[in-house]
Amino acid sequence: MSIGIAYNKRKVNYMLELKNVSFSVDDGKGQKEIIKDLNLKIDDGKFVVVTGPNGGGKSTLAKIIAGIEKPTEGTILFDGLDITEMSITERANAGISFAFQQPVRFKGIRVLDLLRIAAKKQLTTAEACKYLSEVGLCAKDYIKREVNASLSGGELKRIEIATVLARGTKLSLFDEPEAGIDLWSFKNLISVFEHMRETVKGSIMIISHQERILNIADEIVVISAGSIAKHGPKDEILPEILGTSAAVGSCNILEKGGNK
Ligand SMILES: Nc1ncnc2c1ncn2[C@@H]1O[C@H](COP(=O)(O)OP(=O)(O)O)[C@@H](O)[C@H]1O
Ligand SMILES: [Mg+2]
To answer: What's the pTM?
Structure first.
């Protein structure tokens, strides 16, 4: 009897739970439903990869979780707390980080400042360097650099990932981190995520088409036409989607370009 109660208590809250979430916009011709009555439960400490055809609603889903878009209907629970009406900042404070598909450049701000802002404390140079090393950047070359146009897309991406690490939040969201970077950087990025998977305590949700990122997932979610087409353990879902356009379609060229 008491065991039953303990079990029930343990299962009450998921790290993230979306209940009947819908999102529609007025596209001039009427209401367009982008996310349709979506239900999703993610447990604590999972490495989740979200994939699916372009235009399926993946980025919108990430924005809804981060608070950039508000669902038209439904509820979002984070550790059991209803965050549906919370702003981006409130959600960030509650423990949700979001790395944009196109990282932002900040003129006049050094990499060290950016990491300090993310960590919300006066990180020592050594502490800041640790985060840069974790994303494969030689820290001393970057720590004093300004976050401006002199950084390449790949460098910027890795600096942004370092800020997510410095933030150390419960849930880190990445929208297609592989987008817009060269092959060399891509290869390094995979190592960054493999490393992150081992070291990070919170949950990671990455939107990606890359087979190698899908391969390190605990769980895979396939989003198509605003709904969840599949969700389950990697070993179950990956064989089902490999070779279909839903998963690796648009980025196959990259893989064949010598990155295996
Ligand atoms: N604010 C918006 N207004 C109108 N259409 C939008 C808006 N945001 C997204 N969409 C549309 O919703 C669909 C899903 O977009 P998105 O979430 O970016 O898909 P994905 O990331 O899976 O490629 C696309 O057809 C896109 O054009
Ligand atoms: Mg997208």
So the answer is: 0.84
The C-alpha R_g of the chain, in whole angstroms, comes to 19
| Per-residue pLDDT tens digits for 77-136 | 999 999 999 999 999 889 999 886 566 677 789 999 999 988 888 999 999 999 998 888
Dmax (CA) for the chain in angstroms is: 64
- Rounded CA-CA distance 246/100 in Å is 22
Spatial contact of 156 and 135, defined as CB atoms under 8 Å apart: no
CA of 34 from ligand 1 middle (Å) equals 7
Which atom of ligand 1 lies nearest, measured to the CA of 60? 17
Q: Which two tokens stand for residue 56?
A: 């399926």
Beta bridge partners of 99: 174
User: Which residues make up the environment of ion ligand 2, defined by Cβ < 5 Å?
Assistant: 59
The residue assigned the tokens 């209401």 is 31
CA of 54 to the centre of ligand 1 (A): 9
Q: How far is CA 171 from the centre of its chain?
A: 8
Token pair listed for 25: 């916009």
In order of their start, the domains of the chain are 14-256 (3.40.50.300)
Average pLDDT, the chain: 85
